[in-house]
Known about the structure:
By secondary structure, the chain is of the alpha+beta class. The protein has two domains: 1-191, Thrombin, subunit H, CATH 2.40.10; 197-298, PDZ domain (Pdz3 Domain), CATH 2.30.42. Helix content is 17%, strand content 42%. The chain has five helices and 20 strands. β5 (62-71) and β6 form a beta hairpin.
Amino acid sequence: MSVLQELAIATRTVAAAAESAVVSIGTDGRGTGVVVAAGKVLTNAHNLRDRTTSVRFADGRIAQGAIVGSDADGDLVVLAVDTTGVPVPAWASATPELGDFVFGASRDNQGLVVTAGQVSAVARSFAGPRGRRIRGGIEHTVPLRRGSSGGPLLTAAGEIAGINTHRLDRGFYVARPADEALRQLVDQLASGQSVRRRQIGVVVATPEVTRRLRRAVGLPEVDGLLVRDVVADGPAATAGIVIGDVLLRAGATALVKPELLIDALESAGETVVIHIARGAEELDVTVSLVEQTETASGDDAGHAPAAEPEAG
C-alpha cells in the first residue's frame, strides 16, 4: 500500500471518529468546537460574541450553548449544550512531535471538513486575543479554512491532540497541545470555574504609537506603553496610574512590547514596581497584583477585546 493510500485511509478514519463530535459555532459558522464531555463543548473564546451562541451538530440540529467556564486570555471556553447521543473523542496519549502527520476537523453549514498536514514546529508561542503570550503551541501545515478556529487537531486514530487556535502570518496554524495541563484546564472550565489571570487593569498603546503621540504634544519620546484607559478601582488605578502615563519598566523588564508587561506580571510577587513617565517627569509606583479564579457568572470572555492591546 502506498503512502498516499495510507493517508487517504487515515483521513477517512479521522472523519468517522470526528463526524458527530465536531460542531459549528455561531449562526454564521464563525468557529468550530468539539464535544469534550456529556453536555459540554470546547471552542475558542474569540468565537463568541455573547454569553450564548448557537451550536450546529452533524445531524443538522441547532441548539443554544451557554458559557459555563472560560479562560479569555488563553482563548478557551466551555459551553453547556445538549449533546445527547454524541460520543466523546478520546484525548491523545502523547503530544505530536516534529514531522508527525496530524489532521484538522471543522464543520460549516454544509458538513464536516477534514484536512491533513504535518507538525512543522513544537513549543511555539503566540499572542492570545488579549495580548497574553500562550506558550507550548504546536505549529502545523494542515490547511484550515475560515471558521476552523476552536476545532480539534487529531491524530490518525481520531484522538484529540490539540485545539486549533491561531493562524500565523505565513499561513501555518498553531494549536494548543492537549497535554495534561490543558485537560485539567478544560475540566476546570467544564466544572463552572472561569480563569482570570494577573492583571493591573489598563489598556495600552504600543511604543510606536506612544512615541508618535508624545511627539505630537511636544513631550520627549520614550520607549514604553501609553496608558489609553484605566479600569476603575483596578490595581493600576489604586496605585495612582492615570490615562496618559507611559509604562517604561515593570521591575527590571523594559516594556518595549505589550506582552512584556503581561510576562512581568506573571513572574512578579504580590506587588510590582512600575517605572512610568508622566509628562516630562519619571516616577515609580507600586502596584498590588490580584490573581483570581471565579465562577462563569463574573467573567467577560465572550466579549471582543479592546481596540488597543490589553496588557492585563
